[in-house]
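Long-time lurker, first post. I've been practising inverse folding by hand and with some scripts of my own, and I keep getting stuck on stretches where the structure tokens seem ambiguous. Below is the full token string for one chain I'm working on. Before anyone asks, I'm not after the true native sequence, just a reasonable design that respects the backbone. If someone could post their per-position residues I'd love to compare against what I wrote down in my notebook.
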């Protein structure tokens, strides 16, 4: 029986793609002074999103590409600092996330498990107030191990006071979230919102929005 649900943050609770789009628009305007309504400006923003690869590419890579392609005098280190210091301001939640979390909290123990630096991730999560909806907030940077290492999933289960098999893990990245949850013995739920995904691997629940999460955990057979 599932008694707890742990959520990834970026691309699962947050609309990471929209958040990044908003952030890149702000940054390009700040560093270039370009007209944000121009097609030239939008082309550069879209290139940044492409290089960004849904957050999987390091920001140094993105800003080095930006320097090589458009702004030869760009200070890459300064841009990286801007991202670290300001990205929390541009966070956008997934549609329906608050309403469904409130309902789930009445029945399940809830947690967030997020890769990354503790201060950076917590600033984003708390900016949107998701910390108030969960029983435990676990940021991998506090433990020196990252998803998909099963060890961090085991720590999250211990923090919730549940066995791994009593927990469903919801995340958007197969390698980091889904495979990690499977190896740790949790129920894997693949959140496919921001990009198309496919797998023939058995036993993976696929959801596309928070209505489907509500259907699965509150109106389904779990």
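-- Answer (accepted) --
I ran through it position by position. Result:
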């Amino acid at each position: 029986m599932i008694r707890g649900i742990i959520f990834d943050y970026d691309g699962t609770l947050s609309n990471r793609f929209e958040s990044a789009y908003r952030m890149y628009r702000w940054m390009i305007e700040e560093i270039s002074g370009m007209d944000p309504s121009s097609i030239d400006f939008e082309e550069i923003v879209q290139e940044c999103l492409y290089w960004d690869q849904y957050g999987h590419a390091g920001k140094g890579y993105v800003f080095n590409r930006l320097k090589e392609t458009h702004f030869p005098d760009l200070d890459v280190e300064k841009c990286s600092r801007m991202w670290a210091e300001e990205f929390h301001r541009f966070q956008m939640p997934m549609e329906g996330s608050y309403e469904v979390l409130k309902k789930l909290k009445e029945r399940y123990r809830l947690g967030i498990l997020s890769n990354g630096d503790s201060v950076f991730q917590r600033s984003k999560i708390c900016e949107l107030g998701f910390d108030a909806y969960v029983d435990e907030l676990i940021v991998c940077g506090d433990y020196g191990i990252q998803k998909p290492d099963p060890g961090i999933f085991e720590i999250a289960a211990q923090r919730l006071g549940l066995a791994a098999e009593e927990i469903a893990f919801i995340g958007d990245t197969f390698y980091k979230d889904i495979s990690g949850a499977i190896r740790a013995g949790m129920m894997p739920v693949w959140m496919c919102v921001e990009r198309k995904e496919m797998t023939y691997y058995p036993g993976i629940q696929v959801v596309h929005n928070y209505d489907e999460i509500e259907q699965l955990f509150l109106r389904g057979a779990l």
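A couple of notes from the structure itself: The CA atoms of residues 54 and 195 lie 9 Å apart. The chain is about 45% helix and 10% strand. Happy to go over any region you disagree with.
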